Amino acid sequence: MAAKLSKKQRVALKQIDELSSKRKQQLILGFASIGVMVLVIVGYNTLTYQMGVIDEGNTIIRAAIYMTAMVIAGFCGIMLMRASRNKTKIDAMRQSVGISRETLDAWNRGEYENQ
Question: What predicted TM-score, i.e. pTM, was given to this entire model?
Answer without folding.
Answer: 0.78
